[in-house]
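Hey, resending since the last one bounced:
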Amino acid sequence: MHVPHPRTTGIRTRRSLALTAAAAFAVTGPLISAPAASAATPTAAEVSPHAAQAIDDIGASGAWWVNDLQHFSPKVQARVAKLLFSAKGLDLSSYRYNIGGGGVAVTTAARAPEDFLDPDGGYDWSKDKGGRTFLQYAAKYGVEDLIGFVNSAPARWTTNGQSCGGQLKAENQSDFAKYVADVTDHFARTGARLDYISPFNEPDNDFGSCGQEGMKVTPDQRDDIVRALGAEQRARHQKTSVIADESSQTTQFVSEVPQWISQPGTAQYVSALAHHTYNNPNDGQLGNVYETAKTVGKKSWATEICCFGKGSTGWNQEYDPTIDNALLMSRIIYKDFASSHDSAFQWWVALASGYGSDPSAKNDEGWNDGLIYYDPDYATNGNQTLYFTKRYYALGQYSKFVKPGSVAHDVTGAPAGVEVSSYDRDGKWVVVVNNHNTTDTALNLHFNSEAPKRAREAVRTSATENWADVAKPSVSDGTVSTTLAARSVTTYVFDQKGHGGSAVTGAWQGKQSGKCLTADASGAAIGTCTGEAGQSWSYDAKGALKGANGYLTAGASGLTTSPGYTGDASQRWLLNANGQILSEASGKCLDVSGQATADGGKVILYSCTGGSNEVWNKA
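The structure tokens again:
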């Protein structure tokens, strides 16, 4: 994505050099309006008995800022590493290392990372000092997933001889693959083994303004590059695998991934499908990501986002170190995990320098691209102060607790203005809750598997708190009860009893039609809600929806019911918090065809649109 360089008007570059300040800041007003909590005891939200996706990692990128931080004192560098990678800091489980293309013609020095090539074709491994420093720190701290990503191939192999504005020449695809594999081998020898390689980043854009590195990679070249790199890795017995294609927008991801990954011999080399969310996707578009991943049989990762603000999760120029922007970030993470069912979330740059006019207050001159900020004039004024934003702490509400291997369980029925995500791992539940409301809000949360025994931790970030230990919620008969502070992100950790399980039961009423879901061997339809047995469904730990006439099944001829459960994906469903019911076989949504409202209106599977005819609520 492009943002103007904070020091140069008229130049369009990918993201800001932003710097940030942060500590505790007063809330100036909500960015997202939400109703106040009711005084009545709320109906319990339900934690799904069925497991959704496993979480691979949560992390951030080391692009650009490392080229500035290499000039900071070793003491500050060590502090930054501790803030990002240690258990006392963010404890990130992934780190994205930028494999540079040499920065030829790039106009912004910090965004021109060195490559390792010598003019004679040899290697100079002393280059990219800043990048190497923080990659080694990440390895030293035991960050689980180290990811190498490329904005541009070395300039000698691009069509214009630059690190921006060109394409990788077809005749040099094997040279590029060998180069990336050589870099991978080198770092493995130094103790920093790269677990994944992303060979092109935002390939829909060549970044011809040259404010940063970039190269255009058309869909018909993406499979060639993936196969070249994958084959090279396999020939060397490297354990590194490929992620792709890191499209800027989910709409591009959905339309372009099937084009290149379907080419013969390509899919075998791809471990995960990577996308960015700069189009501010709605629930339908996030559902399309899940459908695309299911269609090609790969998991999806959300690998880059930043630079939203002014009350929206859409692209905006603003610098906001307060809880307002932190809650927007937390909403994006929540939706990536709960709506598109991504297995990873990776923030853009961990540090930045474009805080605009004031590192401690909102302003329209800076950018919301960093978690921690530093002075852009450090080289002349000697200032090496680090400024923290609430985004830093909001990301930590996830990254410190939702560790690799955690399994997401959807949560339905949360109060208005509240977003709840729940994760099961190693005999514990981790629950992260966003309260966008301007008042304290009551929450009851009922678990339908592995009942919580007691609360171990309760940690909160709010307008006045940063990872503060707060009162633990009560637990009784599988239900957690608590009061959420206004405008806050809170993480709870519970011990599990290690047994038990129940189904979510009742009727499912379409939001748009007002009618209830029915189904039999002839198909699925809507009907006036009467409470009859044919409208009652049981959703269990297998992900099966069982009604009076059998198990809801996505067959070749449409939706039907089957008398027995086979365990096939055609009988497994996800109940999204946004009301979508997704087929695990196709990733499509349960949809009232033609937005019908009359009894007998047909219910089908359809690519998610975000429409109210795809929203189902417990009746």
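The chain has three domains: 3-31+50-399, 407-496, 504-618.

Sorry for the duplicate.
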